[in-house]
């Protein structure tokens, strides 16, 4: 077994107040690092004080976008345990992204071991207030100084962590979504299934324009016919039509969300009819016209469930459940967050406990 | 007029030997930097010693791919002048890329002024041997430490420079190209027209597979029907069919190469029939079968003209001009490189002279 070196910080930062936590602005006292070279493979896994990194301006990460990242959360339970939600799924997806973007495979077990140690070291940073959590960001960047378009021969894998507030400070609120039919996020054969920087850079322009028009997020359509539903910003999307729950199938251009996967399992467990298939905006509009579109919601690590109150498609409004949170959306939200924060029984074996161990430098 | 601060390096690096110049591995003694914040706009343009930059691990450049870059060259003429080739076109394209990727507009004039000063400072780095040049890499990265998918509010623009050897050390050589019909580089509505990192990350996998099969580069097809020619690796592509030169039109998914633009002007100037239009691989195969496919070549800053000797399309070989460099390809290469290095008269006003001035710290 690889040993993880640990170097504890001599000083500790002041923690932000739990009712003032902003997303992704404050980081804990330590970080996990592991380096890669062609000769050594992944080497030197270590926990060190959180600090800037120094890179030559020619470093490939500044030029050719060969990056991959993940996002997951740690939750503090009422009896002061720390739970992770399906971290092995994030490792699996990270390696799918790596594969697409030509980054060498990373041993998920070492990373999860390192992550657990990192959380043990920074345990006090996991917030306690309801709805709060510790957001965990594993990521890989190429560190080779070289201006050539080719897979790098040196990489750095890191994990940084940030305490985040409740997504729904004033209770769960449906969002308004703009259906995008000019810009395209991804197409089969492209990088849409990978969690890589370029997909997010590509999304900014459409998001900016939707925001200007008063919409929270963009719903992407397929890049070929611009008819079929793909996903929403950083979420997968579900529709409840005449009692059946429909979500776009994994088609080679959307990201497979871990929340999506969990929601599908929950629905099937409850014997609610579910279908993963191609679904067009025309079909959704038709269902709406017939009064058969009952609910719609996005799923993702940040919001867990984000009920959708309205779509704007081709300048026409599609109002869902009178703009209010649907019953199923609410039930899914309560169940999933309950499992995540330990108030509901975890029948699926999704949560992983981080033991409460004191960690010393070594 | 903005003044550019100049801080000269106390030491100078040893220069690599001119017959051993590798692409993108050695950098000059100085670099140009300019920063951006929402409050100040672009500020503090300066020339400083070439040195690593230090960034917080949460800096957006490591996560969301909001980067843009450019590539151009400076050439040393026989009578020791330094020439730039159409630098204002690179600035124009950089701002088109910026626009797509939500990076604030950059004043091209300040950048060109800064670039000229930078070259004056590092003038000795422009190599003298035939076919060599100084490769110039302007680029923009988001420098805000924030884990949110949104346009950054802080950026850094930089120019670094690298002396590069002749692309064709053993004379101009046709390349073998693999026509890719699984992976997709870009689609209209995506980011294909922008010089942004994600496009290059997306290309690595296909390039890797083509290399394994013995092909130098990949020819991309459109992402919708996978029938129409887009471009090659880091080059635009041209075909000579029955005396007419055909190149894919600017269709919203290919990059507008500055070499492409110059080649089109040259061809029109020479009264050679030229057409910018959609062209399918079927049409190319048909022309080949009829013996009408006379030449094919890629165009880009690195190679200028790269004759294509062979395509592999759907496992069938398309051999061009018996795998030898075509007459027109050679003439275009000689003319363009002649203008660039000052041995031919520049009738188009493409070259810009960098005055030979001594620059002091200020
Ligand atoms: C593009 C995209 N789709 C979907 C998701 C949802 O994935 P998950 O449920 O794993 O958070 C995310 C967020 O990670 C995302 O970035
Ligand atoms: C994708 C792509 N296409 C085409 C080109 C050719 O452009 P230029 O002639 O400006 O070098 C490049 C290189 O810059 C490129 O990266």
UniProtKB/TrEMBL annotation, chains A, B:
Keywords, in A-Z order: Amino-acid biosynthesis, Aminotransferase, Branched-chain amino acid biosynthesis, Pyridoxal phosphate, Transferase
Pathway membership: Amino-acid biosynthesis; L-valine biosynthesis; L-valine from pyruvate: step 4/4; Amino-acid biosynthesis; L-isoleucine biosynthesis; L-isoleucine from 2-oxobutanoate: step 4/4; Amino-acid biosynthesis; L-leucine biosynthesis; L-leucine from 3-methyl-2-oxobutanoate: step 4/4
Domain of life, per lineage: Bacteria
MF annotations from Gene Ontology: branched-chain-amino-acid transaminase activity
Cofactor(s) needed for function: pyridoxal 5'-phosphate
Keyword Transferase: yes
EC number: 2.6.1.42
InterPro entries associated with the record: Aminotrans_IV (IPR001544), Aminotrans_IV_CS (IPR018300), Aminotransferase-like (IPR036038), B_amino_transII (IPR005786), BCAT-like_C (IPR043132), BCAT-like_N (IPR043131), BCAT_family (IPR033939)
Catalytic reaction list: L-isoleucine + 2-oxoglutarate = (S)-3-methyl-2-oxopentanoate + L-glutamate; L-valine + 2-oxoglutarate = 3-methyl-2-oxobutanoate + L-glutamate; L-leucine + 2-oxoglutarate = 4-methyl-2-oxopentanoate + L-glutamate
Family in the record: Belongs to the class-IV pyridoxal-phosphate-dependent aminotransferase family.
Protein name: Branched-chain-amino-acid aminotransferase
């Amino acid at each position: 077994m690889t040993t993880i070196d640990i170097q504890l910080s001599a000083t500790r930062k002041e923690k932000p107040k739990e009712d003032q936590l902003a997303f992704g602005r404050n980081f804990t006292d330590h970080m996990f690092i592991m380096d890669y070279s062609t000769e050594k493979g992944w080497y030197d896994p270590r926990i060190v004080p959180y600090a800037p990194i120094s890179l030559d301006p020619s470093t490939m990460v500044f030029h050719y976008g060969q990056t991959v990242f993940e996002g997951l959360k740690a939750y503090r339970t009422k009896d002061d345990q720390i739970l992770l939600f399906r971290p092995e799924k994030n490792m699996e997806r990270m390696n799918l992204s790596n594969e697409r973007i030509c980054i060498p495979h990373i041993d998920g077990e070492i990373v999860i071991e390192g992550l657990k140690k990192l959380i043990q070291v920074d345990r006090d940073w996991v917030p306690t207030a309801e709805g709060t959590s510790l957001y965990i960001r594993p990521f890989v960047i190429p560190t080779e100084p070289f201006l050539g378009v080719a897979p790098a021969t040196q990489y750095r894998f890191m994990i940084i962590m940030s305490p985040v507030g409740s997504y729904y400070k004033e209770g769960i609120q449906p969002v308004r979504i703009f259906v995008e039919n000019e810009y395209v996020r991804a197409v089969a054969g492209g990088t849409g299934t990978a969690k890589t920087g370029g997909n997010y850079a590509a999304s900014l322009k459409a998001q900016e324009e939707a925001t200007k028009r008063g919409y929270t997020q963009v719903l992407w359509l397929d890049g070929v016919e611009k008819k079929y539903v793909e996903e929403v910003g950083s979420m997968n999307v579900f529709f409840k039509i005449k009692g059946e729950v429909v979500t776009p199938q994994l088609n080679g251009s959307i990201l497979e969300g871990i929340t999506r996967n969990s929601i599908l399992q929950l629905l099937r467990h409850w014997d609610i009819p579910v279908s993963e298939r191609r679904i067009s905006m025309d079909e959704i509009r038709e269902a709406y016209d017939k009064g058969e579109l009952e609910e719609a919601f996005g799923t993702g690590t940040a919001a867990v469930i984000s009920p959708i109150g309205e779509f704007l498609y081709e300048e026409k409004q599609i109002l869902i459940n009178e703009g209010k949170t649907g019953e199923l959306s609410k039930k899914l939200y309560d169940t999933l967050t309950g499992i995540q924060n330990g108030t509901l029984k975890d029948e699926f074996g999704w949560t992983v406990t981080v033991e409460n161990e004191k960690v010393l430098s070594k």
